[in-house]
């Protein structure tokens, strides 16, 4: 039901509905459309658009299909942890996501050097990604200092893989812009296609997990999807390089 292609097609307001539905899965099937709209902080019109993008003619059909979805996946959700993570993995189990990964691999193979970029937690994952890619035979560097100078030499024939949960961090956006100005391709990995970083990048892979912050400041959003995306790209890259 929640395929990667369907979720990627949601706009910002519709993503608010999706995030609310996933976090309140046990209550949603009993809610009226007005209750869901109020809970998600959107209009009933937005809820209807959300339903139609999931190939439901209306809210009634959505509730029926969502109930069936939960019945089919309830045991898996209980056994493997938070529903957001399970929903992510299910959304990647399709041809659309495979094509995204294959496209990313093609871009990486055509680049002479790979530079992973991130700050904070994403900076730690940038270091991990650089090591993982180097392990499979594609030497990569990482930069976790968003004020590191970008030069023509480092950007020439390179690909910058920029990691950011929100895709809105000012320093990271500035950094990505610097790479673009030096004619360096940018591949972003963000939480959603509508972020500023995703729009700035030449190619984006998103993972559609609700952002979680402590005190509205410190980001503790799970990074499991990012690790999965990087490792999936790395393994496919290793296979292609061995051909």
TrEMBL record:
Residues 1-73 form the HTH rpiR-type domain. InterPro entries: Homeodomain-like_sf, HTH_RpiR, RpiR-like, RpiR-like_SIS, SIS_dom, SIS_dom_sf, WH-like_DNA-bd_sf. The keyword Cytoplasm does not apply. Keywords: DNA-binding, Transcription, Transcription regulation. Residues 104-240 form the SIS domain. CDD domains: SIS_RpiR. One of its GO terms (biological process) is carbohydrate derivative metabolic process. GO terms for molecular function: carbohydrate derivative binding; DNA binding; DNA-binding transcription factor activity. PANTHER family: GLUCOKINASE (PTHR30514), HTH-TYPE TRANSCRIPTIONAL REGULATOR HEXR-RELATED (PTHR30514:SF1). This is MurR/RpiR family transcriptional regulator. It comes from Dryocola boscaweniae.
